[in-house]
Design brief:
4-stranded mixed sheet; 198 residues; 2 domains; 4 strands
Length: 198
Amino acid sequence: MIPKIFFKYSALFDKILRKKDIGLRRTKMLSPSEILNYIKVIEKLWHKDEGRILRELSKLTHLKWEEDKIFCYVVGNSIPFSDPLTIPAYKNRPTYFIDILIHELIHRLFDHPKNLKKIKRVRKYFYRKYKNENKITRNHIPLHAIYTYILLKFYNKRRLKREIELISYLPFYKRSWQIVLREGYKNIIKEFITSINK
């Protein structure tokens, strides 16, 4: 089963999140009407590659999608998170939105209840190997390796570089990227697959 992503705007959800001080570097928030127009842009971008990306993620990770529909809330202000799938509209950067969507979908694939037993083995391996690193860093090492593979396969090095640069002000994410770049994403994916299939 490969899910279909549906982009949604909820005025109430957006209003609640706009009041939060999330402490992130953000450009000016889009208005509700601008978000609705933004959704039209990202839908076109995403649906070109949606099936191929979601199929590749399942194949690469040896994990199954267990949902046929996933709703993605597009809001003016929020940190991105995977459940409920929520991503802010990045003004003038719809391709960046797509990249963040991929990141959050990897989290969602990992955290599906039917995949948790396998992911527990992965986390145990990476927690042991990187025991001196912060939990956020350890969790993101395999995720960033898989993310690298997907961005390079479907897009380009420039988008990968942009992602690494834009997140570099958050130390635990920056550290995860440093490890992935040092050790090699292909090597980390091999370790991921070995530990998931034990």
